[in-house]
Amino acid sequence: MSQEHVIEIFDKEGNSLGAIIDAEAWPAIKPILAREFGLFSKQGPEAKPEPMQDWEYLLQYWDFPYPPDYDVACGHCGQQTENWSKDDPRLFRLRAASLSGLVTFICQKCNARIIKKHFKNEILTETHPYLDDKDALKEARYNTSAK
Ligand SMILES: [Zn+2]
Predict the structure, then answer these.
(1) From the CA of 35, how far away is ligand 1's center (Å)?
(2) Is 93 within a domain?
(3) Residues 108 and 60 in one domain
(4) How many domains does the chain have?
(5) Cα of 78 to ligand 1 centre, how many Å?
(6) Distance 44 CA to ligand 1 centre (A)
(7) Which of 20, 103, 127, 132 could form a disulfide with 7 if both were Cys (CB 3.0 to 4.6 A apart)?
(8) 25 lies in which domain range?
(9) What's the 80 CA to ligand 1 centre distance in angstroms?
């Protein structure tokens, strides 16, 4: 990147105040800011990043007698996808994934929590509407078994 794409700004004492990035350089910079600082996401900065590492672990140690499944359907508002990881923007955001096969998504349309439980012979899907999200006991139990 040539110098003229980025103009650094200093105060009178020479302390760095920041930088101005021109329109040509911006598309290259923006994804880095998004990745490093969680900026520009539709959910705002307070949205937790998806735990993709956990999902990768689950795939890596997948020992169920069927291939990994990528379809997600919301039992509350009916939104569905064939492959949540390919949706851009996401229809469902990954909230949690554990080696035990418990995968949780948040429906981006109605905020419901979709829990996919992978067992040897079947996959059970539960939808918890957003209002029921305060079921702390249940959540705690899931977390314990997941770790
Ligand atoms: Zn939904």
Answers:
(1) 26
(2) yes
(3) yes
(4) 2
(5) 6
(6) 19
(7) 20
(8) 3-37
(9) 8
